[in-house]
Amino acid sequence: MQFGIFTVSDVTTDPTDDTTPTEGERIKALVTIAKKAEEVGLDVFALGEHHNPPFVSSSPTTMLGYIAAQTTDLILSTSTTLITTNDPVKIAEDYAMLQHLADGRVDVMMGRGNTGPVYPWFGKDIRDGIPLAIENYALLHRLWREDFVDWQGQYRTPLQGFQSTPRPLDGVPPFVWHGSIRSPEIAEQAAFYGDGFFANNIFWPKEHYMRLIGYYRQRFEHYGHGTAAQAIVGLGGQAFMRAKSQDAVNEFRPYFDNAPVYGHGPSMEDFTAQTPLTVGSPQEVIDKYAGMREHFGDYQRQLFLMDHAGLPLKTVLEQLDILGEEVVPVLRKEFAVNRPADVPEGPTHAALVAARDAAAVAEVSA
Amino acid sequence: MKRLAVVVAGLSQPSSTRLLADRLTEAVVRAVGEEVEVTVVELRDVAQDVTNNLLTGFPSPKLDAAIQAVTGADGLIAVTPIFTTSYSGLFKSFIDVLDPQSLTGMPVLLGATGGTERHSLAIDYAMRPLFTYLHANPVSTGVYAASSDWGSEAGLHDRIERGAAELAALVRVSDRSQRVSDPFALPEGFSPVGGFGAQ
Question: Where are the extended beta strands (E) located within A204-355?
């Protein structure tokens, strides 16, 4: 079981003192946050991709490469990589390069992105979102697995004998997650390839994601990648903690009330009752997230959103201390209890290489 | 058994909009002639939930129950006060949080209230296009009640009976409430590797 954080890289005014970090400050803060994640024993740092303010993360592999150079164990991932508007050829090359530089500590989460105007900036149309995600990934999947690719599709120029470089590290492509909030097509795609499925899980009630993940697990088995229980599932989450529950509530409330996405809407009490957001003591966070596998089955990766809505860097680092020192160690123990032996661990490059080699040996001996 | 949903956008309590909705409901239930389970959704009771849904993208459990009752019914009575030439903002906001496909084929009886009969065509010029856009099936008679109608001899009663008979005829043959919807139904021809010209 892997634990980590994911960020959307928003530059948001702190509602308590009306200060706003510069883009430069926020970019450096993200690096500090990633290094802190490794320091407190988390496994994963995942970075979003956006091409419009108030977000700063337009160039994820640049930042992840910089973080890779300053960390040793942290898995670097994305949340998400825009499979719709990026050229799949460039994704293949950028992330293979990152994979080499980071010695395999890289995986990727595919997503469609959000708002309509972004698509035409990259020559695309949001109404083609699903077909773009399907076709572009079909090409990316081949580029990472076949040395020379002939390709013809609807959305990019054809390729004849094209080889993307560098080739994936050890001949094993980065593990891929597919992120979706509501589309069964994406769950179907993840299941077809035997890839991971990540449910954002933070903005909607868990019942919705339970149905979506249930569907993905069922289709994963249908396509012959293993049992439904062995499908690779990741979940988002969100927490704010202080030693005393009421201190957490009081401190986080102005950030909640003014947050992008849900601010000025439901009360924090309603939202915490209806979604996985937990504001309270570390024990309350442990209780909420230890219960997730009751709803979703044993899963592989839990990411927390910890640094949005204008929270100052100092506060975020304090939150990571609590998460890494008080919450995750207990969750690791809780999740290990009665976990079936045949449920896979969170994906790593080493495990993928070992699986590939084992399959090759099996083929030779058969 | 048939299910009938009644959406009421009246703001005051008691409201003339609810009064009209109750009259329509009574007439429809009587005209259907078999057991009818009626669910009345007073939008005032879920007004904050509707706003929150617009902001967050998901319904609260309370609003979700109302949405399920409306979209899973065999027939719908929709009654709104006419504000500034059209349905009320709350009424439209509720329609906006419904899945745009969820009212396809829904038999609907349109009703509206207002201070003056001069607004009566709002049913046909504002409400009806909204429901036809959603591929719902509004019956041809809409029932408008102005303040003056509540004190007059006939007219309103006849319109209620006529509209109710039209809706009841569709409710009697509807199987909407018995249908099982598959939220994960993939589009026809969908291929996970791209049935879109990709190899």
Answer: 233-241, 278-280, 301-305
ipTM score over 0.85, yes or no: no
Residue A102: CB partners within 8 Å, gap ≥ 6? A64, A65, A68, A76
The helix/strand/coil state of B168 is helix
Whether the CB of B132 is below 8 Å from some CB of chain A: the reply is no
Domain ranges of chain B: 2-178
CB half-sphere exposure, B77, CA atoms < 13 A: 34
CA of B159 to nearest chain A CA: how many angstroms apart?
Answer: 41
Measured in angstroms, the CA of B101 and the nearest CA of chain A are apart by: 15
Q: What is the pLDDT of residues A143-156, one digit of tens each?
A: 999 999 999 999 99
State CA B143 to chain mean position distance. 13
Phi, psi of A136 (to 5 degrees): -60, -40
Q: How far apart are the first and last CA of chain A?
A: 32
Closest partner CB to B186 (pick from A153, A185, A265): A185
For residue B107, give every residue at least 6 positions away whose Cβ sits within 8 Å of its Cβ, in sequence order, or none.
B74, B75, B76, B136, B137, B138, B139, B167, B170, B171, B174
B2-178 CATH: 3.40.50.360
Between A44-48, A104-108, A222-226, B179-183, the lowest mean confidence (pLDDT) is in B179-183
Q: Where are the domains of chain A?
A: 2-365
Closest by CA position to B176, among listed B141, B142, B140, B137: B137
**How far is Cα A336 from Cα A180, in angstroms, rounded to an integer?**
27
Q: Give CA A43 to chain center in angstroms.
A: 12
Contact call for B185 and A184, based on CB within 8 A? yes
Is the domain covering A2-365 a CATH 3.30.250.10 domain?
A: no
pLDDT value at position B195?
Answer: 65
* Record: contact B198-A139, CB cut-off 8 A: yes
All residue ranges of chain B with pLDDT < 50 are 196-199
- Interval B42-84: pLDDT, tens: 999 999 999 999 998 899 999 999 999 999 999 999 999 999 9
Give the global pTM.
Answer: 0.92
Phi, psi of A338 (to 5 degrees): 60, 20
How far does B188 lie from chain A, in Å, by closest CA? 11
The whole-angstrom separation of Cα B74 and Cα B106 is 7
